[in-house]
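Continuing the batch. This is chain 6 of the set; chains 1 through 5 are on the previous pages. Same settings as before, nothing changed between runs. Recording input and output for traceability.
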Amino acid sequence: MPRFRLESGSAGEESGKVTAAATVALAPSVITAGLAVDNTALQVRWSASPSTRVGKAEVRVPVTGQRVVRRALGRRLTRLRTASGMSRRDVVEARLGISEPTLHRIETGKVPVTGANVRALCWLYSADQSITDALADLALGTSQQEWWDASPVIPEWFKLYVGLEASASRMSGYDGEIVPGELQTPEYARAIFGAEQPVDSELAERHIKLRLQRQKTLFARNPPIHLVTVLGEGALTRPVGGDQVMKGQIEHLRRLSREDTVDIRVLPFSVGAHAAMAGAFRILEFDDPDDPDVVYLESHVGALYLEEQVEVDEYRRIFDLIGKDAIPVGEFR
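Output for chain 6:
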């Protein structure tokens, strides 16, 4: 599936109530599984917490949200079914009590999955016991909530992104007009929320608290994520919140950029026309080759997730082009 579009009824990455949302999860890396075609080898990697081994499988405590886990499990079950030569109709005709629509939802990561259903499918696909046990354990994470899953403030389409962000090993992004949420100061974030909708101090503070929680989760990871961000000069010269707020925001960016795994750069106006003028984007990359990298595109009413290799490669090409002209934020004056 080349792309997914998730829509919300209001603007902004962490605001609004969902009116039409497709719960689609994509490539995790902290929760991954490498599965051989002959079903003889499986490795399931979860968090860095104590692990247990079941045959050839290693299972650890999950660290990301349920949407990411569901997609991880769905991809593995789909691969098993394909390797067995069975269609979805064949599974239905085996009378396991799983309908074709339910199987579709399981394989596309849209619903929680019971261990019993996973074991039944693995039996049908002739998976060995170690694979069956590992995937049944993975099913436990399809119902477990992280802080973003439980939040009524964050729309469904953005909960998916937060889960992916919490799993990615590297994130590269371009924003021409705004400092992205993971790099914002509370004062800058407050000014952004105030510009998007009528001032509601209580609602704004809830959003800011959630954004700070997201930042804490992102930057407290071990191993840390490798973050590369290119900002258009306009993102740092527009006086969002006033001169003092922007001064504090730029100093915050400079402090973050001193971290070994954080690279924040600025694309000057003097460059003129550049390859990313079509708009902002982020590329999320994952360590496991079975988990495809994802391009994230956000609008006022939802988000688009691209995972076809040709699409991801094109955005990498664009990012490389603007990176050649961008300067470190510490050198920006």
